[in-house]
């Protein structure tokens, strides 16, 4: 199982750097999702992480293809408002490209355009998506059966339900608040990691 952790935009730069340094050995990919930060701030954060020994290939930048390219990190995660996968693949062929999707159709489109993986959700009810019905395990299972690229599940995933998520064929889980908003984030990441086996996308 792949364990992706996604920053929640709630920590200071110093707090975030410390949290990532503390947990990076336990995770497969770290998504820098700091929507309120400028490109310059993200470059500073990521440069500091790399200088402190975080492997660049573990780092995935949310939306900002320019930052991911300049820093030569592991990849970029595209949202609905981001550039199309095909455009990123055309101009930045060295980047691993992920796409956030919310349906099988969106997943198929991302695969056709050359995405390396998709993050699919939300699977369970979550405070970050109030009033929006979750996709659920059955839709996740249908998506994993059809797509050839890895499907990473997100949304309301806790250590106790990781096994049923993986039973759908998902290649891993992505976690945001369950780790970065946890009062004991180091204990939290170990709880998720205990469900995981190392695997490369």
Automatic annotation (TrEMBL):
Q: Record's Gene3D superfamilies?
A: Aldolase class I
Output the Gene Ontology terms for molecular function: isomerase activity
**What UniProt keywords are attached to this protein's entry?**
Isomerase, Thiamine biosynthesis
E.C. numbers: 5.3.99.10
Domain Thiamine phosphate synthase/TenI span(s) in chain numbering: 4-179
Q: Which Pfam families match?
A: TMP-TENI (PF02581)
InterPro entries membership: Aldolase_TIM, ThiamineP_synth_sf, ThiamineP_synth_TenI
Pathway where it operates: Cofactor biosynthesis; thiamine diphosphate biosynthesis
What name is this protein filed under? Thiazole tautomerase
Name the gene behind this protein: tenI
């Amino acid at each position: 199982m792949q364990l992706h952790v996604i920053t929640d935009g709630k920590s200071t730069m110093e707090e975030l750097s410390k949290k990532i340094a503390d947990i990076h050995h336990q995770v497969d990919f770290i998504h820098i999702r700091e929507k309120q930060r400028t490109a310059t701030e993200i470059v500073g954060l990521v440069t500091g992480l790399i200088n402190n020994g975080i492997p660049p290939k573990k780092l995935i930048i949310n939306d900002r293809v320019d930052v991911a390219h300049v820093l030569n990190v592991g990849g970029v995660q595209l949202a609905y408002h981001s550039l199309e996968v095909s455009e990123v693949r055309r101009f930045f062929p060295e980047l691993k490209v992920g796409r956030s999707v919310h349906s099988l159709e969106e997943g198929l489109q991302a695969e056709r355009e050359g995405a390396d993986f998709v993050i699919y959700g939300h699977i369970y009810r979550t405070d970050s998506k109030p009033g929006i019905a979750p996709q659920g395990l059955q839709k996740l299972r249908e998506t994993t059966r059809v797509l050839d690229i890895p499907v990473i599940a997100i949304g309301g995933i806790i250590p106790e339900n990781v096994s049923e998520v993986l039973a759908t064929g998902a290649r891993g889980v992505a976690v945001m608040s369950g780790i970065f908003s946890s009062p004991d984030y180091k204990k939290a990441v170990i709880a998720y990691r205990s469900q995981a086996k190392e695997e490369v996308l």
